[in-house]
Amino acid sequence: MAVLQVEQNVKGALSDTRVVRSFRKLIRKLWTHHQVLVMVLAALAGRLILVIFVFRDQTDPANSHAQFGWEMGWVSRSLALGHGFNSPFAPATGPTALVPPAFPYLLAAIFRIFGLYSLKSAFAILSINSLFSALTCVPLYLSARYALGEKAATFAGWLWVFYPYAIYFSSARVWDYALTAFLFTTCFYFAQRLHRQKKIFPWLGFGVLYGVTVLANPSVLTLFPVFLLLAAIQARRLGGLWLCHSLVAILGITATLTPWTVRNYRDLHVVRPIRDNYWLESWAGNNGDTSDSNPAWAHPASNPVEMQKFQAQGEVAYLSEKHTLASNFIRQHPLFTAGVSLRRALCFWTGFWSLNPTHLHNEPLEIPDVFYCTTLTLFMLIGMRSLWLIDVATALPYLLLLALFPLTYYFSHASPDYRQPIEPEIVVLVTLGTRTLKRRWRSIARGRPSDSSKRFEKSIPTAASGVPCLGCTGYSLLEGHGLTVGPTARGAVTS
To answer: Which has more confidence, 21 or 127?
Structure first.
């Protein structure tokens, strides 16, 4: 009996060993061949853990459930109740174009399925946001691999998995941040490759996809002509049908955006492409009050007096008045406006607005956020400079993105949460900045020159036309081997 028992124990141990080995083999295979899938699953798991802790906070009934999406939530409530795309604030105020349509329709569907402002709805929408944020790993990885190579792309993907801004704004806020970041990063990746597309359908698809992205957040619209122009220039140099393809892309985005513009004209009787809230936001930031970048009293949602004006005048007349007030203030105080705009630019990239005790009391996390946000910005700038020295064509979309996207916020009001649509691209540049500093530190420690990028400025691979080609270069910051640059297939890492 004892011998039999020993044999059974040995067989059990061998069986357990085989299971462990099989599990390790599976993990190794996933890590080696399906690392992007692992990134997505890890990102989703981390975000859902936070959702479990915070989703109940969204159902707070204070201020007419303002926490549950603010204007987005109130419009979604109107849609769910069958009243149409109306009422961007707690009272019923009629048709609106204050917010874009994509996210409110998504949230309205959640309300219809799981109940208005219910715990199930809160968990569902935050989980969907988390899914969008996790899926952003895919276009982020592909975009980084196309520009930087495999190794840097892997680093960038894992950085996004654990990126605090991405986790918080997707898992704890009911807004379009995660949806827009996913869609825009996908558009950015397609824009990097668009000039290589010989057929007409990829250009049409780019226009349509960009139109859907604009319906989620119109702030990215200004970059569409930039990306299209860069792709057209590259396609022209490669001998492609650049003009025809560009017109098709414009047709795609126009066809996508026109129905909502027609809806706004039909319901509001004025031409309002996508949304019409700019002058309200501009007046909030240009009225002489600098106690906050976006003072709460300037908005109907948090000021009963403004809410009464909005109800009495209607949306179109109310916003027209804010247009006049903001324009007059800017004309009468140009130096003050310029100074505050510089403060807003600083706030956008550092998170810093004021050391006023009242402000810091209302924003207790601002000081630690300033250190974090400023550090990210510094690494981003280092990465931007490194990429520019290596390949201007590859760097140009990133540079124009950083230069043009924030302009609207410099002249209205700004805070780091407005960066969320372009945060994945910032992560790519932070990745390059981190690896550049690491390489330089090791070079200094070994007594070698720290800046090797200039050695490669004259060896950038070119397209058939002899002109540097966006995405024709790939490079990796290999440990102990400095910076290597050379022609690659679709951005694959060089050896």
So the answer is: 127
- Cα radius of gyration rounded to whole Å, the chain: 26
The answer to whether the beta carbons of residues 303 and 66 sit under 8 Å apart is no
pLDDT in tens, 51-85: 999 999 999 999 899 999 999 999 999 999 999 99
- The first and second tokens of residue 429, run together, are 């540049």
- Please list, in sequence order, all residues whose beta carbon lies within 8 angstroms of the beta carbon of residue 246, skipping any fewer than 6 positions away: 203, 228, 231, 232
Residue indicated by tokens 């957040």? 217
Q: How far apart are CA 8 and CA 2, in angstroms?
A: 10
Task: Please state, in angstroms and rounded to a whole number, the distance separating the CA atoms of residues 448 and 477.
Answer: 16
115-119, 158-162, 215-219, 410-414: least confident range: 410-414
Tell me how many degrees the CA angle 93-97-102 measures, rounded to the nearest 5.
115
Element (H, E) at 478: strand 473-478
Whole-number Cα distances in Å, 385 to 12, 141, 338, 382, 462: 59, 21, 27, 5, 20
Q: Could you give the CA distance from residue 490 to residue 149 in angstroms, rounded to a whole number?
A: 9
Q: Look up the pTM and report it.
A: 0.86
Mean pLDDT, the chain, rounded, equals 87
**Residue 13: alpha-carbon gap to chain centroid:** 50
Split at pLDDT 50, 70, 90, the class of 248 is very high
Tell me if residue 462 falls in helix, strand or coil: strand
Could you tell me which residues come within 8 angstroms of residue 378 by beta carbon, excluding any fewer than 6 positions away? Answer: 433
> Residue 253, class by beta-carbon neighbours within 10 Å (0-12 exposed, 13-18 middle, 19+ buried)?
buried
Rounded distance, CA 179 to CA 133, Å?
Answer: 7
CB-CB neighbours of 251 under 10 Å? 14
Q: Which of 169, 238, 241, 164 is nearest to 200 (CA)?
A: 241
pLDDT of residue 35: 92
Name the 3-class secondary structure at 294.
Answer: coil
Give the integer Cα–Cα distance in Å for 285 and 339: 12
Which residues sit opposite 462 in a β-bridge?
Answer: 468
- pLDDT for 141-166, tens place per residue? 999 999 999 999 999 999 999 999 99
Q: Report the alpha-carbon distance of residue 119 to residue 225 in Å, rounded.
A: 42
